[in-house]
Write a structure and sequence with these properties.
20% strand, 12 strands, alpha/beta, 325 residues, 2 domains, two-stranded antiparallel sheet
C-alpha cells in the first residue's frame, strides 16, 4: 500500500526568522512531504517571500484575517489524504512527521499530535493535548511543567492544539473547517469539541517531538491576546453550554480575569468579555446535550491529576466542586 501523502499548512504573519527555521526543519523530515502551503496573513517582513523562495506554495490573504481563516484557506487548497497544521514558530524533530503518520494509520484515529516542548526551556512542556473545563476555559495539558514520565505515555485524546498537529483530510469534511468567528485563539478547542461530540478521537504521540517558541505574533499576556481569548471564551460558552454551568463559568472566567489583571491586561480582558457578550447571540448553537458533560468530566479529571496544584485550579475546584454533573 502506498504511503499517504501529507501537505503541511503554515499560517504566517511576520516572524520571518522563525519561518526560515521551520522550513529548514521540514526539509529535514524523514517522511516525504508532498507540498508545503504557507498562508500569509499580510506579513510585512518578507516572510511570504522567504516561503516562496523555499519552494512552498504561498497563498496571500492580503491582510491579517486571523489564524482560523488562514488554516481554512490552506486546508481547502490541499489534495492529500493527510494535512499537518504547523505554527510558523515551531521546530519539529526530523522524525516528527513520520511518527505522527504511523500513529494516525488506524482507521479510528482522526488526528495525532506529539510532545511540544518549550523552545527556550527544552526540559519544559509547552503542550501535549488540550482539555476543557466546565468553566469554558481550556488547558494545554502540562504547559509549564518539567518534562517527565506522565507526559511520555501515548494515549487517546479528545482534542489537540493546532500548534503542530496532523489531521486526516476527511475529518474537515465530517465536522467542517475552523470557525472563522474565533479568528485566533481557542479555534482549535472549538474544532476539538465538534470532533469529541461526534466521537472522532485522536492520539497523543510523545515520541513525536517539536519545540515551540510561543506567542510570537502578539506576545504572552499581551492585550491583543488577552482580548481575543476573553472574547472567544464567551463564544465557546454561547456555542455549547447550557445555563446549568453558569457558576463554574463565572468562577473560572473570573479567575482568569484576575490572572489577566495581574499581568497588566485587565482592561483587555474586560474589552474581550464585552465584545463577546455583545456578539454572543450571533453564535450558531451546537447541540451538545449528548456528550458535553462526559467531555468536561474527563477534562477536569485530567486537570485534577496533573494540574490541580496550580493555584488557579485549586481555587476553581474549591469553589465549584469536582466533576461535571
Amino acid at each position: 500500500m502506498n504511503a499517504p501523502g501529507v501537505t503541511v499548512v503554515i499560517p504566517v504573519w511576520n516572524g520571518r526568522g522563525f519561518l526560515v527555521r521551520l522550513l529548514e526543519k521540514l526539509r529535514a523530515q524523514t517522511y516525504p512531504i508532498a507540498e508545503v502551503v504557507a498562508v500569509d496573513n499580510g506579513s510585512t517582513d518578507g516572510a511570504a517571500e522567504v516561503a516562496a523562495e523555499s519552494g512552498a506554495r504561498v497563498l496571500r490573504m492580503g491582510s491579517n484575517l486571523g489564524f482560523s481563516r488562514a488554516v481554512n484557506a490552506g486546508v481547502e487548497a490541499c489534495r492529500t489524504e493527510l494535512i499537518a497544521v504547523v505554527n510558523s514558530d515551531v521546530e519539529p524533530e526530523p522524525d516528527w512527521l513520520a511518527r505522527l503518520v504511523a500513529a494516525i494509520e488506524p482507521a479510528e484515529v482522526w488526528f495525532a499530535t506529539g510532545k511540544i516542548l518549550n523552545a527556550s526551556q527544552r526540559d519544559r512542556i509547552d503542550g501535549t493535548h488540550d482539555v476543557m473545563a466546565r468553566s469554558g476555559c481550556a488547558w494545554r495539558v502540562g504547559q509549564g511543567r518539567r518534562d517527565g514520565a506522565e507526559f511520555s505515555e501515548a494515549r487517546t485524546i479528545a482534542m489537540a492544539s493546532a500548534t503542530a498537529v496532523l489531521f486526516r483530510a476527511e475529518l474537515f469534511r465530517k465536522v467542517g473547517l475552523f470557525d472563522a468567528v474565533f479568528e485566533s485563539y481557542l479555534e482549535d478547542i472549538d474544532f476539538g469539541l465538534r470532533c469529541a461530540l461526534r466521537g472522532l478521537q485522536g492520539v497523543y504521540v510523545p515520541s513525536a517531538v517539536a519545540y515551540h517558541w510561543g506567542s510570537v505574533s502578539l506576545g504572552v499576556w499581551s492585550p491583543g491576546m488577552v482580548r481575543l481569548v476573553a472574547r472567544n471564551q464567551v463564544f465557546l460558552v454561547a456555542k455549547y453550554f447550557s445555563a446549568r454551568y453558569w457558576w463554574p463559568v463565572l468562577v473560572g472566567q473570573g479567575l482568569w480575569g484576575l490572572l489577566a489583571l495581574r499581568h497588566g491586561a485587565g482592561w483587555a480582558f474586560v474589552k474581550g468579555k464585552v465584545e463577546g457578550l455583545r456578539r454572543r447571540k450571533s453564535i450558531e448553537r451546537i447541540d451538545s446535550s449528548a456528550g458535553l458533560s462526559r467531555i468536561l468530566k474527563q477534562g477536569e479529571r485530567e486537570i485534577r491529576q496533573i494540574g490541580a496544584h496550580d493555584l488557579y485550579w485549586r481555587v476553581y475546584f474549591l469553589l465549584t466542586g469536582s466533576g461535571a454533573d
